[in-house]
Structures are given as C-alpha cells and as structure tokens.
Design a protein that fits this description.
This protein is about 25% helix and about 20% strand. The chain contains 14 helices and 16 strands. InterPro entries: LRR_dom_sf.
C-alpha cells in the first residue's frame, strides 16, 4: 500500500470513525469520491456537533431540501442523522420538518418549552429508532403528554431534566422498555407523590432522582409489591434539604441488586448505614456527597471496591477501621481541600494514637495559623502519608505525579509531559479506580 488512498474501504472507515472534529471530516470529504462517500454519512451523523447555533435547525432543514433538489446523493442525507440537539429558540414547525426528514435518529435532546401532546405524538410516530430522549428545559404538559412514549419500542433512556410542577403524572412510563431514567425537579420545592409516579418499570437498571423523593418512597411502602424495579443496579438520589429518611431502608430491602449507589444532600442515620451493608449485598461502588456527619461504619461492606466521600464528616473510629469495614479497598486519597486532621492524645482502645479526629474543612486560601491553630504538634497534615497509613492500614496516595499512581489504577490514564497529572486525570482516577477510598471536601 503506497498511500492511504490505496487502503481498503474497511480500513478507511475505521480511521474516519475515529475522527472527532467535524472540520477534519469535512476536509476528508473533499479528498476524492471514495473519501466523500465515507465521510458524508459521518458528517451527518451528528449535524452541527455539540456547539450548535441558535439557527441550527433551520439551516439543517435548508440543507436537506437543497440536497434533495440537486440529487446530491442517492440516499437521503437525513437518513444518516443519528443525534439531534434542538435549541430553545427553535420553532416547532422547524422541529417537525427536520424530524420528518430524519427517520433513523437515535438520540434527541429538546430544549423547547412549548411542547404539547401533538408534538410528542409526532416524535413517537416519526422516530421509530429513538433510543435516548432528553427534555433539557422546563415545560408544562397535560396528563397525557407522555402517553405516546410506549409506542417507541426502541426507547431505552429518558431524561426529564426540568419539571416545573411535580403533580405531572408519569404513569405511562411503566409501559416503556426503559433501562435508564433521570428525573429532575429544576430546583422547585415540590415533592413527587403517588400521583406523579408509576407502578414500576420492570426493565429499568439505572434510576437518577434529583428532587425531594420522600413522598415517592413512602408511596412505595403502600404497594403490594415494593419491588418496582426488579433489575435495578444503579441508583442516585439527590435531595436539596436535610432530614432523616428512614424510608430509604424499605426501598433498599426491595432492590438488593443495586451495585452502584450515590446519596447526596441528606442526613444518613445508623439504620440507613447498616442497610447499605446488610441489604445491598451486591453493592460495589458507594458515593456519599454532602451528607453532613456520617454515622460510624459498624458492618463490613464485603463487595464494595470503590468509596467516595465528598463534603461529609466522618468520625475517627470509621477512619481507623476503614480497612476492616472495606476488605476490598487498599488505597486512600484525601483531596487538597481537606487540610489536616486534628487529634487529641489518646485512648488506649485505639492504641497510643487518637480517640478523636475532626476534619478541618477550610478553603485552600486559609492562613497558616488557621490551619495549625493552638498546637502544631497535635495536628497531622493530610500530606503525612506514613501516619495516615499506620492508622488506616491503607496505602496513602497523594497523586502528585503519574508515577505516584499504582499500575492497577492507571486504566486508560494518559502519560503527560513531565509526568504531570491534570484535573481531568484526577477525575478519571476517581471515576474508574477500584480498591480506592477518595475523600474530598469539594463537590
């Protein structure tokens, strides 16, 4: 093979499928007829890209009509569209016109507020291959707005990211073959109740609820069968106010297959903490965010291989006995926002070291005197790795450079100039690394 142009069609397709920039694909389409035939479908796969303009859909519609008028391609260009993002300024008639010309679209995100029942019917009718549907703006709809969704036989993911009034019923969702569902209340104070929700979705594996769920959890306890999602494996619950939620325990008992759990913005009492260890027997990844003072770990989490604590407080006993409670975790990292752990000399039960620690959660701009306060000798800097290791029996990682990351935590981690780690590298480690406790004050 003397040049890239001599490569087989299969190899060229593999190469072009890995080109992310729309501008680069456009240049490929200008090389010759072969490159044109392969690049055009990829260019139209996600027209406009992520950074679309306010007038994107009208321009797209004009392009579709122009291509049809001049017979630029034997296959309608709209048949290549797989992803569409509709901005707030788009007119409904433009949305309908593009939808009519993109029968194979799989991902659709709509930012329009003025949607009605007829619009949803048009989407369900004209997008039979739709797999992911997202509403990215708040809107007011009728009781029958979501009724056409069960007719989307391929719909697997639904994101309702902005519901104004929590009294909108979602009963029709129980007839959808959904696997992922995300609901958000848009910061309003309403509570979802039995009038809002549904009897269950038997195919659902991922559930993300970012609103006050007290009414829904209490409603679950009144049902003959509390197992609404029999194959649920990933659960995220976010509440914007503090309180004790014992209604979580019955929900956990009814959904023991949960492997990934994230709880945010709620007080976690000892009953909930015990339930996490005893009822969620398949739990592997646990994330606790902004939950105030955590009760001590009293049970062993036999399968948990990743623990993330962000914006939470934890007592000394839970920290010292971390290795005992989490036998599959071997590493510990403390974010820079947590400056030091203070100690008072001690109680023989925990050895000669400490009987009380308090995490000093302060901004990185605090003065040195604020960090060390009364007695420098009674404080341990978070950078004091050997001391932390001796207490927790975990290997302390400071993530100061690429070489400081253990080999088994470097999955798909790029090696950068001078071995530096960027913020995105740390985020990648936090999301993918197994066997790691990540404690961070920040969000």
């Amino acid at each position: 093979m003397s040049s890239l142009g001599d490569a087989s069609i299969e190899i060229l397709l593999l190469i072009l499928n890995n080109v992310d920039q729309q501008s680069a694909l456009y240049e490929c389409a200008l090389v010759n007829k072969t490159f044109y035939a392969m690049a055009i479908p990829l260019l139209w796969r996600e027209p406009g890209g992520a950074k679309r303009g306010h007038n994107f859909l009208p321009r797209l519609l004009q392009s579709l009509r122009q291509a049809d008028k001049h017979c630029l391609h034997s296959t309608p260009l709209g048949d290549n569209i797989r992803t569409l993002n509709v901005s707030e300024s788009t007119r409904l008639q433009d949305l309908h016109a593009v939808i009519n010309n993109a029968p194979l679209v799989e991902e659709l995100a709509i930012d329009i507020k003025e949607l009605n029942d007829t619009d949803m019917e048009q989407i369900a009718l004209n997008c039979p291959q739709l797999k992911c549907l997202s509403f990215t703006n708040y809107f007011e709809v009728s009781d029958r707005f979501f009724d056409p969704l069960p007719h989307c036989a391929n719909l697997r993911e639904l994101n309702i990211l902005a519901i104004v009034h929590p009294d909108q019923p979602l009963a029709s969702l129980q007839h959808c073959p959904l696997e992922k569902l995300r609901l958000r209340s848009f910061g309003f104070d309403g509570d979802f109740t039995k009038k809002t929700f549904f009897g269950g979705i038997p195919t659902l594996t991922h559930l993300d609820m970012d609103y006050k769920t007290g009414g829904f959890l209490r409603y679950c306890q009144t049902l003959p069968s509390r197992t609404l999602f029999p194959v649920l494996t990933d659960l995220r619950i976010v509440k914007n106010h503090f309180g004790v939620y014992n209604d979580l325990v019955p929900f956990f008992k009814a959904h023991p297959l949960i492997r990934t759990l994230s709880l945010e913005g709620m007080n976690i009492d000892p009953a909930v903490m015990t339930s996490l260890a005893t009822d969620l027997v398949h739990l592997q990844r646990l994330t606790l965010i902004k939950n105030g003072e955590l009760p001590p770990f009293t049970q062993a989490f036999h399968r948990v291989e990743k623990l993330t604590l962000r914006g939470c407080h934890m007592n000394v006993d839970s920290t010292v006995r971390m290795a005992t409670h989490f036998p599959n975790i071997h590493y510990l990292h403390i974010g820079k926002e947590i400056k030091n752990w203070r100690r008072i000399p001690s109680d023989p039960v925990i050895g000669e070291e400490f009987d009380n620690w308090q995490q000093v959660l302060s901004d990185f701009s605090d003065s040195e005197s604020d960090l060390w306060e009364d007695n420098t000798e009674s404080s341990i800097s978070q950078s004091d790795g050997p001391t932390i290791e001796s207490l927790t029996k975990l290997t302390y990682l400071d993530f100061a450079s690429y070489d400081s990351v253990p080999n088994n935590l470097k999955a798909n981690l790029p090696r950068r100039m001078r071995g530096r780690l960027l913020r995105e590298d740390l985020d990648h480690i936090r999301e993918t690394a197994l066997g790691l406790v990540w404690i961070d004050h920040g969000c």
